[in-house]
């Protein structure tokens, strides 16, 4: 771009020179026309020497005009080459600038892609950690003794998980529960009024005050087929 600063002044100088050459050629053309007209009007009166002299003057003027014309053409070609040289230089600079810009864009995209990969990696790691945390909480909750829900359908059997501290102990009778650490706020069930443990079954009477019973307390070893009613509800149904 710095080289373009001198281009306007150089063009102006060349154009002024070409204008000056045009002016000289036009002056010579007028002189040639006058000499030619004079020669044609007085050719018969001129001697051979005078004719030769007039013709020589006209020829010299033509040669001078031709020189001016050649100089003008040469100057025009120089001006064209000068402008063309600057155009080629600008094209080269533009191509280099576009290449540099493309490299910068690729570098930015590469850094963005790398940053996005790192972000996705962090998000994936966070998801894995969340899953591990949820799995840990799930495993922790599975270790607790589940409480039978009163919203379960009647007749469903609930298999309570074993307490971790008593995993090696087989609970077969409500009296064994007395040795277990019991939360005073935990609800009690069954005829024995103890907390939930082992396999339990729900009474199909929707008005049953107890609802859930231990298999061992009601003399069951497996889930019965069809509807099942607790001893109290069965006796009341027989009375009806």
TrEMBL record:
Q: Where is this region: Disordered?
A: 109-161
Q: Short name of one Pfam family for this protein?
A: ING
Q: Does the keyword Metal-binding apply?
A: yes
Main location (coarse class)? nucleus
Molecular function (GO) terms for this protein are: zinc ion binding
Annotated residues that bind Zn(2+) 1 are located at 190, 192, 214, 217
- Return the protein name: Inhibitor of growth protein
- Organism in which the protein naturally occurs: Amblyomma aureolatum
